[in-house]
Amino acid sequence: MTIAAPLAVLGIAKTAFSIIGSLADAVSRPASQTAAAATPAKAQESIWHQLGQAVDVTALSRDEMTKVAWTLYDNGAIGLDDFRMLTLDHGDQSGLLTAADAQGRVDWAAEFQARLDQHRSQGDEQAMTQDQRALDILSRLRAGSKGVTSIRV
């Protein structure tokens, strides 16, 4: 018991000297090295930002939406279920709840909102969850177009 006390004091002293040494090293380091170490690296653009800058989710053809979904899936940003949900086969667009414009472009945010409303009125919880997931993905693309990269889906 008498040996343990001096060993504990020795451990505390060793830790204290280590901390003092680290502080002394930090103080003696040139300012340019300290500033460089404190400056975070520039964040790499996410796939959400890249795609968000390139597309408008309120005016995409079905083929363009499929390409967006494939790019997200291929880059690991969404899973297979999300990919399948975003690329529903609508045939000649007749399966849409909203109208496509003359060039076949669809407002996908409005489409999935209309689907959500319809499924809510029908009480279809599973479909509502999928529709909300699609809206979340589209929102993340919109946020990416504005440079926001920290939204989790």
In short:
The chain is an all-alpha fold and 153 residues long.
Fold and architecture overview:
By secondary structure, the chain is mostly helical. It folds into two domains: 4-38; 47-145, no CATH class. The protein is 63% helix and 0% strand. It is built from seven helices and no strands. α3 (47-54) crosses α7 (125-145). The chain starts with a helix and ends in an 8-residue tail after the last helix. Residues 32-42 have low confidence and may be disordered.
Rg, Cα atoms, Å: 27 Å
Total domain units = 2
User: Could you tell me the strand content as a percent range?
Assistant: under 5%
**Poorly predicted residue ranges:** 32-42
The computed structural class is mainly alpha
Oligomeric state as shown: single chain
How far apart the termini lie comes to 57 Å
The overall pLDDT average reads 78
Order of helical and strand elements: HHHHHHH
Count of separate DSSP helical elements: 7
Q: Identify the overall geometry.
A: extended
The major β-sheet equals: none
Give the beta-strand count. Answer: 0
Helix content: 55-70%
